[in-house]
Design a protein that fits this description.
Chains A, B: GO terms for molecular function: metallocarboxypeptidase activity. Chains A, B: This is Carboxypeptidase Taq. The structure is a homodimer of 512-residue chains. Chain A starts with a helix and ends with a helix. By secondary structure, chain A is mainly alpha-helical. Helices cover 64% and strands 3% of the residues of chain A. The interface between A and B is large, with 37 and 37 residues.
C-alpha cells in the first residue's frame, strides 16, 4: 500500500516535471527560431529590437530553468530513482544536471560573465586586427578567472576544466582527454612528417575553376536531398556562414554558402550541414521522448560526429566520388573529364603549411585542436600564464605541425572561442572526427554492401542505421563513450582513427 | 516636501511600469515573428511543434499581462494622474485598459472561448462547404453567448456590443456607429442605384490578359519602394494571403500575392500592404515612446485607413495612374497603349452584382459592412435570433445591394470572422475607408501640389505629412475620432466620404 502510494506520487511528480520541461523545450525552440531568423531573414535595422526580444526571452527562460518548483520535483524524483524506467531516469538525470548548473552560478557572477561576453569580443576583434595579443590578454585573464569561479560554484570537488568541458561534452574528463589526445599526437605527428617528406601529393590543380553560385546551390540542394534531408520538416537557405538551426526536429533549417572559385568547399560544407540536419531530423518523436531532455543531442562531439560522418567518412570517400562525379558534370557540363579516383584524390589533398584551423584537413586538424586543448587546460589549472600564450602557441605549432605563424593574428588570435569564454569547446571538434571514424568502421561491418550502396547513391540503409543507433537515442546514454560502447562495442578508440588516416593517406600519397 | 516625495515615487513607479511594458512589447514582437514565419517560411511538418511554441509563449504573455505587480503600479499611477505628461498619461490609460480587459475574463470562460475558436471554425468550414447554415448555427449561438458573458465581465454597465467593439476600435460606440452608418447607407444606396441605372460603365475589358507572376512581383516591389517601403527595416516576400506583420517598427514584413489573370488585384494588394507597412515603419522610436502602448497602432480602423489611403485615395486616383502607366509598360512591354485616363477608369469599374465582400469595390463595400454590423449588433443585443440570420442577410442584400445570394455559402457563411467570434471587427473596414478619405481631402488642402507630386512619382511630401500627423502619433489620442479631430479639425464626417464617391463615380460613369 505504502509502495503504491509512493509510486502514484512519483508518477504524478514525473508528469508535472515533463510538463515544465516541455514548456521549456517549446520556449527554447522559439529561441532557436529567433537565432535562425537573425542570421538568414532579419533586416539590418532590426538589430536593436531583436536584442531586446532575445533578452526578454532569455529572462523568461532563466526564470523557468531556475524555478524552485522544478528543483523540488527533481529532488523528489532523484530520491525515487528506483521507480523510473531508463528513459525517465535519463530525463531526471539531465534535467537535474541542467538545474544544478543554472542555479549554482550567483547572479553577480552571471552579470560579470554577460558583460565580459561583449567586452572581450570587442577587444579580441581589435587585437586581431592589429595582431597585438597584449590588447586581448587582460580579457583572456578575466575569462580564466570567471570560468574558474563558475566551475567552483558548480562543483568545487571536480577539476575546474572538467566542469567547463561538461557544458559541451558531458561525461568527458580531462584525464580521459589527456589519454586520447596523447595517443593521437603520437601517431599523427610522425604520419604528417612522413607524408610531407616522402609522399607524392595528388594533383588537384585541375579542380580550380569558376563555378557559378546558383549552379553550386542547385547541385548542393540535390546532394542534400539525396542524402535524406527532409524539406517537409526543414528548410535549406543560403547564409553568410553555413549553419544548422531551427526550432524543433520537425523544423530543421540548414544553410549553405558558396564561393565562385572553390567547388569543394561549398560541397563539403553542404554535406557537413546535412549531417547535422539529419541528426536533428532523426530524433525520436514518440510520446515518451518528445520535448524532453532525453531527446536532445547528446553532446557537441556527437553532433559533430554526425556532420563529419557525412562530410568526411562518406563525402570524401572514393565510393561517394563515383556517385558525385556524374552529378557534378550534369550541373557543370564543362567540368574536366577525369576519373572518380582522380576526383577523390584531388578532394583529399593535405593543406600545407597548415596555419589556420578552419582551413585545415582531416590529417592536420586534430593537431590544431590538441594544441588549443593543452593551452586552455594549462590556463585553467594554472600551469600556463596568459602572457605566455603566444610563445607556447608558436612553439607547439612548430612541434606538431612543423610551421609557425608570422604573427598572432594568424596564431593565437585566430579563433573567436576564447573571446567568448568557451573553454572546453575545442576538443569536441576532434572527438567528433574520431567518433565518426569509429562509427563508420563499425557500420561497414554491419552493412556489408555499404560502399556499393554509396557508390550507387543509395544512402537509405546507412541513414536508417544511423537513425536507429544514434539519432533516435538522443541523450539516453550519459556520455559519448557510453554511446560509442552501445553502438560499436567499445568506448572511443583513437587508434581506429589513426589507422584510418594512415591507410587512406598512405595510398593517396603513395608511401611505400 | 510631501509633493516632491510623491513625485519621486510616481516617477519610480512609472519607470517600473515601462520596464514591464517594454518586456511585454518585446515578447509580443516575438509572437509577431512566429506568426509571420508560420505563414511565410515554416515547413509543413512543423505545424504541431509551432502550436506548442505559440501556446508556451501565450502562457508567458498571459502571466505577465495579468501580473499583480503590474496592476498595483497602474493603480498607483492612475491615482497620480496629475503628475503625468500627455505621453505618460496615454501609456497609463492604455496599459490600464489592457490590464482590465485581460484580468476581467474568468479562467473558465477563457478556456471555453479557446475551445470554441477551434470547434466553431471547423463547423464553419463544413457548413460553408455544404452551404448549410444550420450546421454552423449552434456555434454562432455559443459565440453570441460567450461574447455577452465576456463583455459583462469587462464592463457590466456598457452595452455589450460596445465592449466588444472596443477590442478593435477603441473609443467607438454603437450609438456613434448607428449615426455614421445610417448616413452612409442613406447616401450610398441611391448612388449605387443611379450608377447602375443611368451610368455608363468604363471599359475595362482591355485590361484582361496574362501577366507573368515574377514580372508582377518585380513591378510591385518597385511600386512599394517608390511609395517609401524601407527594406532596411523590413522585408517583402510572397505568401498565399497578402498581409503585413513582423516583430517591431524596425522589422516590418509585408507579403504580396499575384494571379496570372489579374494585374489590378496584385497591384492594389501590394499598395494596400505598403500602406499598412508605412504606418508600422513610421512609428515614433524616441526614448519616451519606444516599446510602450502609446506607440501602438491606434486601432484597426486607423490601421486600415493607412492601407486604404494608399490603395484607394492615392493608388486608384488619376494622378497615380499617370505615374504608374509607364512603369507597367516598362515591366510589360506588350501592355496596351492606352491613356492614363483609360487606365484610371478601367481600374475603378464597380463590380456587379456585388455578392462577396472581399471582391467588392469602394462603392459597394460599405454596404456589405453595414449589413454585417446591423446583424451582429442585433445578435448581441438580442433583437436578432441566430436562426433568422440567413433570411435577414438575404433581405438586406436585396435592399442595400439590389441582389441576393443563391445560397448561404455565398451569403451569410462567406466570411470567417463570426466563426472566430469576432464581433465588432467588420465596422473597422469601412471606418478605415472613411478615415482615409477625410485625411486625403485634408492633405490636398495642406499640400497644394499633392496631385502633381503623385503624378510625378514624388510621394515623399505626402508620406512625411502622414508620418508627422498620424504614424508617429501612435496611440496618443484616445480614439479614431480624436485623431481625426487633431489631424483634420473634425471628427469622422461620413458626408466627406459620400461626396468623394458621388463626385468620382459621377464623372467615371458619366452621370448628367
Amino acid at each position: 500500500m505504502a509502495a503504491a502510494v509512493a509510486e502514484a506520487s512519483t508518477s504524478k511528480a514525473y508528469d508535472e516535471l515533463t510538463g515544465k520541461l516541455r514548456e521549456l523545450d517549446a520556449l527554447n525552440g522559439i529561441s532557436g527560431l529567433l537565432g535562425w531568423d537573425e542570421l538568414v531573414m532579419m533586416p539590418e535595422g532590426a538589430v536593436g529590437s531583436r536584442g531586446a526580444q532575445k533578452s526578454a526571452l532569455a529572462g523568461v527562460l532563466y526564470d523557468k530553468r531556475t524555478d524552485k518548483q522544478l528543483g523540488g520535483l527533481l529532488q523528489q524524483l532523484k530520491a525515487a530513482a528506483g521507480e523510473l524506467d531508463p528513459v525517465q531516469a535519463a530525463v531526471v538525470r539531465d534535467a537535474s544536471r541542467s538545474y544544478t548548473r543554472e542555479t549554482a552560478v550567483p547572479k553577480e557572477l552571471a552579470q560579470r560573465i554577460a558583460k565580459l561576453e561583449t567586452d572581450a569580443y570587442v577587444a579580441w576583434v581589435a587585437a586581431r586586427k592589429e595582431s597585438n595579443f597584449s590588447k586581448f590578454a587582460p580579457f583572456l585573464q578575466q575569462w580564466v578567472d570567471v570560468n574558474k569561479q563558475k566551475a567552483a560554484a558548480i562543483d568545487p570537488a571536480a577539476p575546474a576544466y572538467d566542469v567547463l568541458l561538461d557544458d559541451y561534452e558531458k561525461g568527458m574528463t580531462s584525464a580521459r582527454l589527456d589519454e586520447i589526445f596523447a595517443e593521437v599526437r603520437k601517431g599523427l605527428v610522425p604520419l604528417l612528417a612522413e607524408l610531407r617528406e616522402k609522399g607524392s601529393p595528388p594533383d588537384d590543380a585541375w579542380l580550380a575553376g569558376s563555378y557559378s553560385l546558383d549552379t553550386q546551390a542547385a547541385l548542393c540542394r540535390e546532394v542534400a536531398l539525396a542524402l535524406g534531408f527532409d524539406t517537409n520538416n526543414g528548410r535549406l537557405d543560403v547564409s553568410v556562414h553555413p549553419f544548422t538551426g531551427g526550432s524543433h526536429p520537425t523544423d530543421v533549417r540548414m544553410t549553405t554558402r558558396f564561393k565562385e572559385g572553390d567547388l569543394t568547399e561549398g560541397l563539403t560544407g553542404a554535406i557537413h550541414e546535412t549531417g547535422h540536419a539529419l541528426y536533428e531530423q532523426g530524433r525520436n518523436l514518440g510520446k515518451e521522448w518528445e520535448g524532453l531532455p532525453v531527446n536532445s543531442a547528446l553532446s557537441m562531439g556527437i553532433h559533430e560526429s554526425q556532420s563529419l560522418f557525412w562530410e568526411r567518412m562518406v563525402g570524401l570517400s572514393q565510393p561517394f566520388a563515383e556517385w558525385l562525379l556524374p552529378l557534378v558534370s550534369k550541373h557543370f557540363p564543362e567540368f574536366p573529364k577525369r576519373s572518380a579516383a582522380d576526383f577523390y584524390a584531388a578532394e583529399n589533398v593535405i593543406k600545407s603549411p597548415s596555419l589556420i584551423r578552419v582551413e585545415a584537413d582531416e590529417v592536420t586538424y586534430p593537431l590544431h585542436i590538441i594544441l588549443r586543448y593543452e593551452i586552455e587546460r594549462g590556463l585553467i589549472d594554472g600551469t600556463i600564464k596568459v602572457e605566455d600564450v603566444p610563445t607556447i602557441w608558436n612553439q607547439k605549432m612548430k612541434d606538431y605541425l612543423g610551421t609557425a605563424p608570422e604573427d598572432d593574428a594568424k596564431g593565437c588570435l585566430q579563433d573567436v572561442h576564447w573571446s567568448a569564454g568557451l573553454f572546453g569547446y575545442f576538443p569536441t571538434y576532434s572527438l567528433g572526427a574520431m567518433y565518426a571514424c569509429q562509427i563508420y568502421e563499425h557500420a561497414k561491418q554491419q552493412l556489408p554492401e555499404l560502399e556499393q550502396q554509396v557508390a550507387a547513391g543509395n544512402f537509405t540503409p546507412l541513414r536508417e542505421w544511423l537513425n536507429e543507433h544514434i539519432h533516435r537515442k538522443g541523450s539516453l546514454h550519459p556520455s559519448g563513450d557510453a554511446l560509442m560502447t552501445a553502438v560499436t562495442g567499445n568506448a572511443l578508440q583513437p587508434q581506429v582513427f589513426l589507422a584510418y588516416l594512415r591507410s587512406k593517406y598512405s595510398k593517396l600519397y603513395k608511401l611505400s
